[in-house]
Design a protein that fits this description.
Elements (H helix, E strand, L loop, with lengths): L4 H32 L4 E11 L2 E4 L4 E6 L6 E2 L4 E5 L2 H58 L4 H29 L11 H18 L2 E3 L4 E4 L8 E2 L4 E6 L4 E8 L11 E6 L7 E9 L25 E8 L1 H6 L7 E7 L25 H18 L15
Antiparallel strand pairs: 1-10, 1-14, 2-9, 3-5, 3-8, 4-7, 5-6, 7-9, 10-13, 11-12, 11-14, 12-13
């Protein structure tokens, strides 16, 4: 039986009402979600896991003799990663040690020379004084005729020669004294220069062992056994995985309410939606990505094109969540920031540099050990240092 037009019209009106109701319900749900949730969140999928990638470079010259760490391995701070063939460095250290010992003995000989010249000055001063006394007696004896004028003249000539000899000895003493005045044998400039050369040779020798400056995992090893490396050559990278963060690149027109300290949630593509990480906005990078590019834009050239820029935002991740579900730098994420919190200054930053990879002490002992060894060499070669004595008073 055919439906009447009235029935068809009523059915259409009923279906239209259902569609309108569904549209209104959907719009109401969407508005409610935006009003109660989405308007307080800024979300982007242009976000990636990042962290500190610590480059390890050679600080000495040598041929690689052993590679002791491979990619993906965990290394501790201070572990030896690469060992160089240290024969040349060992020979240079032995030469520097010999030069330091020779410098100490040369300075000791200088002090001995000062004592020798001092005794020469004292001896010549005594001869001059004796001749002065003789001259005084000859002058009195000449008046009474007990001594001839020839004896008097010879004594005067002898006194002049002795005074010249004394001045020569005094000048020789002053020449030696100028090289030791104001210093001791232990801190003489010649010894300090030799110690500096020894310290440099020792550090060069010690750093034939390339050590890890921080704890982390080895990546991008670029050195092979037999390769000759020089200071500054890349060896490998160390990546600490216990301190990572998210770099979220947000559109500039969505940055108005983003502030440090606001909570964030992160979904990592590696784990999907099954695991959500919780973070906190640590700071806003002071510039868009374009200004830090290798070729920054120059909008004054006349071919300006307006492009909405992205601002990198740093989101700190929780260490306990990273320990349970490890991540790697470079992983893609979806980051959402709750911007309903208090609007403090966007220039404020809560980033901290207190984790282990921001400070290393593996190199601190190298120079201290070198100085201790150099002091021992100086002490072993400082023979007769207690007899150096003070300046020669007869040289005045």
């Amino acid at each position: 039986m055919a439906l009447s037009r009235k029935s068809i019209r009523s059915r259409r009106e009923f279906l239209l009402k259902i569609v309108v109701a569904a549209v209104l319900a959907g719009a109401l749900i969407a508005f409610s979600r935006w009003y109660f949730y989405d308007r307080d969140w800024v979300t982007t999928d242009n976000a990636f896991i990042t962290g500190n990638i610590i480059p390890v470079q050679a600080d000495a010259t040598g041929v690689v003799a052993a590679v002791l760490a491979e990619e993906t391995q965990l290394v501790k701070k201070g572990d030896v990663l690469v060992r160089l063939d240290g024969q040349r460095a060992r020979a240079a250290l032995a030469q520097a040690e010999a030069e330091l010992g020779r410098a100490v003995r040369a300075v000791g000989a200088l002090y001995a020379q000062r004592r020798q010249v001092c005794q020469k000055v004292i001896s010549r001063a005594a001869l001059r004084d004796r001749t002065r006394h003789d001259l005084a007696r000859y002058r009195e004896a000449t008046l009474s005729g007990a001594a001839s004028r020839q004896v008097l003249q010879n004594t005067e000539d002898q006194l002049a020669a002795l005074e010249a000899d004394l001045r020569e000895a005094q000048a020789e003493y002053q020449s030696v004294e100028a090289r030791v005045v104001g210093v001791t044998r232990m801190n003489h400039p010649d010894i300090e220069a030799a110690k500096a050369r020894y310290n440099d040779a020792y550090v060069e020798f010690v750093r034939q062992n390339i050590r890890a400056p921080a704890t982390g995992y080895v990546a991008k090893r670029s050195v092979q056994v037999g390769k000759r490396v020089r200071p500054g050559d890349a060896i490998l990278n160390i990546v600490p995985l216990d301190h990572l963060w998210v770099e979220a690149n947000l559109w500039e027109n969505r940055m108005a309410r983003v502030r440090p300290g606001q909570p964030a949630t992160i979904k990592v593509d590696l784990y999907g939606s099954e695991h959500i990480y919780h973070g906190e906005v640590a700071g806003l990078v002071p510039g868009s990505g374009a200004v830090f590019a290798a070729l920054p834009p120059d909008n004054a050239t006349g071919n300006f094109i307006r492009i909405v820029q992205r601002i990198p935002v740093r989101i700190a991740l929780r260490a306990d969540e990273l320990e349970k579900q490890p991540l790697r730098p470079g992983l893609s994420t979806v980051a959402s920031i709750n911007v309903s919190g208090p609007l403090q200054s966007p220039n404020h930053s809560i980033v901290k540099t207190t984790t282990n990879e921001y400070l290393t002490d593996v190199y601190d002992r190298d120079l201290a050990d070198a100085k201790a060894r150099a002091d021992k060499i100086v002490k072993d070669n400082a023979i007769g240092a207690s007899n150096d004595g003070a300046a020669c008073t007869a040289a005045e």
